[in-house]
Amino acid sequence: MSTLTADAGSAEVAVVAPPWADAADTAGIVARSGGSIVAGGGIANVIIAHSDSPDFISRLYHSGAWLVLDAIKLRGCFSV
User: Does residue 70 lie in a domain region?
Assistant: First the structure.
């Protein structure tokens, strides 16, 4: 069974920060985790990010992410 939760093999991830976070806060989570921003997520507390580091996801959670989803799978859920 496939889930939307990101794992070490996820090429791009959707980083979900706390609901009160603004875009700068969310970008800071990605920066502190050593990732790069790929795109905005449509709302201030969501950013699409990338890193080749195998521990990127755990670093995102350690830096304040509330949820980290596989962005490729997530896009597939909303395709028209």
Answer: yes
